[in-house]
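If I may wish for something, please sit down with the protein I am sending here and say whether tokens and residues agree:
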Amino acid sequence: MLPATTYSRTSPGSQAVLGSVPRQYVFLLALLVVYASIVVLASSPVFDGGDEGGYVAYAMRIAGVHETSQDLRLWWGAQDLRYWWGPGYPLILAPFAFFGWPWLAAKLLNALFLAGAMAYAGAVVYRYTSGSVVMLSMGLYPPMMRSLPSLNPESLTVLLVCGFMFHFCALFQSTRRFRLHLLAASICLAYLALAKIFFGYVIATILIFLLVLRLWQRTPAVGTALKLFLLGLLWCVPYLAYMYSATGKVFYWGTSGGMSLYWMSTPYPGEYGSWYSGDQVRERPELAPHREFFATLERLSDVQRDDAFKRKALDNLAHHPKEYARNWAANVGRMLFSYPFSFAAQSLSTYFYLAPNIFIVALFLGSLIPAVLRPQAVPFELWFLLAFALIALAGSTLVSGYDRQFRPLVPILCVWVTFVFVRVLRIELRPWPPEENS
């Protein structure tokens, strides 16, 4: 392992800016062509059975457009989506709904979002290691490309994470444009919470940790991180004020958490914490044990339903802790490897996630050993980003999760692994020992 003194903030890559290396332009253009091709070839004119119809319905409500489609009216009547999801992604779709632009164009934005994310991530890698091939490897990560042909916030989320990562690291690399990077990083962080409301709780958790750390360690680095997260939370105040006026609850981000927590806590045989909708509970025979409880929720408001799910989940957790532990272990497997699911047969599609993610997990675990042995060789900002990713990952395991909760964190883990294996650890072949004279 190399000593800490080999790391220098004035390395050739430290002054790199986005797209400053010609090879990066080539990689980005190639990735953009691949992404756009996937969107065009794999898109369907019909909304899928997942969240597409819900996001479109939410966007139409924002745009003030009335939709007569039966599928979208079912979404509107089942749940007030203003409380179920954050407004981040529907706000991007709203112009398409208002002007009647084709939804395929909205899907093509996913290609731009993901290419922009790879540009940000590649710039961070180049800043620390003077390499750019990692960007291409991240860009061809199969699970990340799977969401491209759908109207969902997954590609936007990856862009916001990578944008936050780039501007956050820039705060500690140079004093130039400090305020600009602080503003950009905080906006990325805030919009990330509006696109995926779970990150609002991540911001709060890290902010509390920073406030406590500030009492013992008054370093400029901790102060900078504290300012950033305070500013990021400040941008979210209008949304939190709106939610307070609508629900009467303080620091309330959405109504989707209770249902996810409920499915994680269910103790019935054959269940592993997978999420199901109310329609699936009514239609699928194996979910019959849940019908009595779901029937009690039908006349409740969105907030009351969320509270009821949380109370039931806590009751399940208190009376069936072993089953929750079982579901939690299965949840980790679902997030990392898309396996196992409740009442689902084994499928070869599991390899689509298992094959790439097993390398990421193995390399990450291997990187922890040299990093812990030489902690001073890793700069503060990368340690902090790792903590951000691990807190988000740990929090996601507590409620019913899927691989899409892991995907946005992959760029952070890739940057971490690349730095450790290039700048902290040195692997070399020993010379062949000379043959002894007999």
Remarks:
- The mean pLDDT is 89.
